Amino acid sequence: MNNPFLLRIDWLSFFLYLILVSFGISNIYSTGFTEESLSLFEWTTPAGKQFWIFIFSLVLFPFVIFINSNFFEHLAYVFYGLSILSLVGLFLFGQKISGATSWYLIGGFSLQPSEFAKITTALFLTARLSSIQMDFKKRQELFKLFLVIGVPLLLVLLQPDAGSALVFIALFFVLFREGLDMRIFYLALALVIVFILTLLFQPLNFSIALAVLFLLVFRFLKKSNSKVKKTPFLLVFVTLVFFSLSVNFIFNNVFEQRHRDRFNVVLGLETDTRGIGYNINQSKIAIGSGGFSGKGFLNGTQTKGGFVPAQHTDYIFTTIGEEWGFIGSSGLIILFTVLILRILYRAEKHTQPFPRIFSYCFASMLFIHFFVNIGMTLGLVPTVGIPLPFISYGGTNLLAFSLMLFVYLNLDANRLS
Amino acid sequence: MIRKFLLLSFTLGSSLLFIFQLTTLQLFNSDYTERSLNNAVQKRPIYPTRGLIYDRNGTLWVANKPVYDLMVVPENLNAFDTLELSKSLKITKETLLTQIQEAKRFSRKLPSVVMRQLSLAEVGILQEKMWKYTGFYFQKKSTRDYLLPIGANVLGYTSETNQNEIKTKSDYDLGEMIGRQGIEKTYEEVLRGTKGEQLFQKDRFNRIIGAYEGGAYDKASEAAEDLTLSLDAVLQAYGESLMNNKRGGIVALEPESGEVLALITAPNYNPNLLVGRDRSKFFNKLVQDTLAKPLFDRSLQAEYSPGSPFKTLNALIGLQENVITSETIFACNEGHFYARGAFMGCHCRVGTKSDLKKGIYNSCNTYFAKTFMRIIESKPTPEEGVNLWKTHLEKFGLGNYLGYDLPIGKRGFIPDSEYYNRWYPKGSWVATNVVSNAIGQGEILTTPIQMANFTATIANRGYYRKPHFKKTNSLQERDSLYPINQTSIDTQHFETVIEGMHQVVEKGTARIARIKGIEVCGKTGTVENFIRLNGEKTQLTDHSIFVAFAPKDEPKIAVAVFIENGYWGARWAAPIASLMIEKYLNGEVKRGWLENRMLEGSLQSEYEKPLLGKAFTINE
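Predict the joint structure of the above. Result:
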C-alpha cells in the first residue's frame, strides 16, 4: 500500500459496503432457508445470485476505480441518453412482472434499466450543475435541470414504479444544496404537512385550526411590529386551505383504493390486519418479536413461515429485525447513517464541484432508499416498493449501487487531480 | 449554511426516528412475540393410545384399533370420478360434493375431514384406487375395540369431545376421545394417559413446514395405564346370555373383597356398536328405545321392592334387638290378622308353626310381619321404632348410594318416621300401617346391586366392603380404598339366618337352585308390581327375585338376580342365580337342561302385554 492513490481511497466507505452486502446476502439466505438447505453458491437461489453479483461487482471495482475521472464528466450525457432510451424501450420490449413493466429479459437475466438510470441521471445532473453556465437565477437553466430529473421520473412513473420515481425526486436535495430557492423547500415541506394533517383531521377541521393559528401569529407579530401586513398572511392561508381541499378531492377521487389504503394504514385510520394492513402488521410482528437480541440467524419463525411478503427484496429489514433483534437492526441503521454522513462529509471537502455534486447525488439516493424502505417496514411510511440498497435481493440494484459507490470512490480518491 | 445540513439532518432525524420505533416495537412490546408464536407455531397434541382393559383373570377385554378419517386438501384436488368415489364410500354423490364444498369454504390449503372413522376393511378397498383421487388421503386415529362384545353397561363408551365440552374441559382438544360412561368415565384419568405436544413451524398459509426449533420444545406423551377389572369376563358373558329375552339385572360379588364379578343388565347392547362412524346412529336407536331401555342399567339404576329376600334383614334386626330368638315360634293360618279387619295372606297351610329357620325357608309372611311389628313396637313410639329399624338397614348400605366406582346409581329408599309423618298426620300411624315392609313390599326400594351387597354382607356374617369394579393391586390398597363396613348386627345372629337360607335351597322355596357339591344359601322373592296404564293403576305379572351366596362357609360369590315380570322367584331368578354360581365355582355347568331352559326362555310376550291395548291376565 505504498501507492499514494490507493491510500487516498475512502476505505471506510468501501469497508462499510462490504459489511452491508455480506450481511444482506446472509439475510437473503435466511429468507430462503429451509431445513434441507442449499448451497450459498448456487446461481438458482436468490442468495446465490446475489452472491455472484457481489463477486462480479468486486471484479468491476479495480476497473472503475482506475478510470480517469474526466471520463464520467465527459460521457455523462451519453450514459444519460442511453438510459432514457432503455427506459423508453421498456414500453416496447419490456417484461411485465407483478404489474410493472420495469424489466428486460435477456437470456435468462432480468435487467431493470431504472436502476442504471439512477446513476446516469446523477452523473448528468452533476455535469449540468457543475458546468460554468449554471445559474439558478436563470429560468431556462432551471427548466433544463427539472427536465433532466423529470424525464426519467416520468418514464418510471409510467411503468408504474413509484419507488424509483421517489429516488429521482430525492435529487432535489442536491439542487437545494447547490442553490435552488429554499422557499420551494419550505413550500414543499408545508404541503407535505398539510397533506398529512388533512388526511388525519379532514379539510374543515384543518382549515379552522389553521385560521386560528394564523390569527394568533398575526396578532403577535402585529404587536411587536406594526408594519406587518395582512395580505401575505391571507394569501398563504387561502393557498393552504385550497391545497387542503384539493388534497381531499384528489385523495378521494383521483387516487386508487390501494393508494388510499396505504396512507390510511400508516396514519392509523384503518386497522385491517388481514387485508390491506396485512403486510405492515406481519412486518411489525416479525420485527417486534425479535426482541433485544433476536431469534438468531436462520431461526426467525416469521421468516421461515414466509408471513411477510417480498421478504427477500423490499421487506428484508423484517428478517434482520426478527433474527438479529434490536442490536442487529439498530446496528444496520447506524451503519447506513455512518455511510451517508461519511459521503456527505467527504463531499463537502471537495474543492471541485463535479465530485462534490455527484457524492451528494449518491448520498441523496441512498438516503431516500433507506428512509422509505425501513420507514415502510416499520409502519412509518406508506407502502412503496423500493429496495434497501446493498441489502435487498435484486441484481441490477446491487450492481448499480456498487457502481455508484465505486464512481464516488474514484472521484473521491482523485480529489487532487 | 442550512443548505449544507439539510440532507444531514434528514438522515440523522430519520435514523433517530427508526431507532425510536425499533425500541417501542422490540424492547417495550412483548405483544409481538406472542403474536409471532400464534402466527408461526402450531401446537399439535400427541395422544397416547388409551389404556387396555383386562378382566380379573387377565383376559384382554378392551383394546384399541386404528380407524381412518378420509381427509381432503381442496387445493390439491384434480378432476376425479365423483360417482365412483361416492359409491366406494357408500354415500351419495351429493353428500360427497357438499363435503368437498365445505372443506373449500374452511380452507383451500388445510385438510378437512370428508368422512370419519372408516374401518381398516373399508380403507383396504379404497386404498388401491387412491392414486386416482389426488388431494385425498387417510389420517389414522385410534378407537376402542371391544374384543369381547359384552359388559357395555359396565365399560361405558368413549366418543369425541364436542364444541361445548371443550369450553369447560380446558385440558381436552376438540375431537379428542373422552370416556363418556362407565369404567371409561370413572377411570378416564388413568386410561387417558398424559398427552404430549409437538410444535410445528407454520408458513403463511398455515401449512406445516417442519418441526419448530428442531423439536426442542416438544413434550412426549406419557403412556396410559392399563386397567384390570374385578369382573370375570366368562361369568359376565354367561350371565348376559342367560338374560336373553328377559329384562332385569344380575349382580355377582365376591363377598370378602367387595369385588364385582359380574354386572348384567338386560336388555344390553354390543359395545362395538358405539364405535366408529355409525356411533350416533346406533346411539340414537338405543336412546329412542323407551320400552326396553337398553341404556338404563337395571342392576344399578332400577329401584324395585326387594320382596322376600328382605325378610332375612328383618330377622337379623329382630335377633339383634332381642325381640325374637332363633327359637321364637309364630303360628300362621294361611296368613294372619295383623289388625282388626286387616289380613295378610301367606302360603303356609292352616296351623303351621314356624321357627325362624322354617320362617325363612318357607318364606312365611306371618312370621316376619310379627317380627317386624315387634321391632317397631320395641320402642315407646312407632317413630322411634321405625328409625331404629332404619339405622340397622343403613349399615347394610341401603337407602343411599353405595359409593362404587361407576358414575351412575340410585339411592333406593328406606322410609323413616319423618316420611310416615308426612303421609299420616303426626302420631296417627302405628306399626300395622307400615307392616308391608316386613316382607319387602311397601315403601322400601332397593337396586339389584344393593341386594347383592346385603347378600354379601350376610355371607360375610356382618360386614361388607364397597362393591367395586377395578381390581386393587394389593390388600393394603384394598383396605385403604374399601375398608370394612361393619353392620350393627352381632356375628352370632347370622348363623341361624344363613342356615335358614341354606334350607331355602335344600328343602324350601328354591330347591331348583341346588347344586351338587355346593352348599348354596339363598332366598326367593316374588314382588307385586304396578304401572299406570291409561291413567289406571294396573297390576303386572310379579317380578322374580333371588339372592344367594355360596358356598355356605367361606363364601366365594354372592348373587342377586332380578327378573322383571318373571312370575315368582323360583321360576327364573333362582335357576339363573344357581347357574351363575355353578359356572363361577365349578367353571362349567352340568345341568344342561336347566341351562337350556334359561337360555331359551323368553319373557317378551309378558313385556308386550300392557302394550297391546287389550285386557290381559297376569301370573297365569
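The longest strand of chain B covers residues 536-550.
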